[in-house]
Automatic annotation (TrEMBL):
GO terms for cellular component: endomembrane system. The keyword Transmembrane helix applies. It comes from Sporomusa malonica. This is Uncharacterized membrane protein YkvA, DUF1232 family. The keyword Transmembrane applies.
Amino acid sequence: MEEEKSREQVLNQRLKQWARKLKSDVIAMYFALKHPQTPLYAKIFAAIIVGYALSPIDLIPDFIPVLGYLDEVILLPLGIALAIRLMPTSVLDACREEAKKNPPTIKPKMWLATYIIVMLWLLVLYALYDWIK
């Protein structure tokens, strides 16, 4: 019983560390968007990931059971991991340092990503309407 509690605490601590690292990597990618040595393809992909991470609207709404958290638990971390692989190591290191030294005081909103997500949902709703009709 006590060993089970200990495992839960260790797992909980690891998840918290992972979440903090994920958050700091999103902020580092935000700075990488402005970095002159970031390749264009990496900027485009990072802009999509950062925009989605900071967007006030989710692609899959959280109120949908199980699937609602799929994007935060699986899709977003996979996207961040891929964006990190696309970044040159020197750029990523510099942006991680900048994120540690100068974290944004206000969470930036990526309204373009919000617009794209809303448009996708409207397209899905229209397709459903057209299919039912």
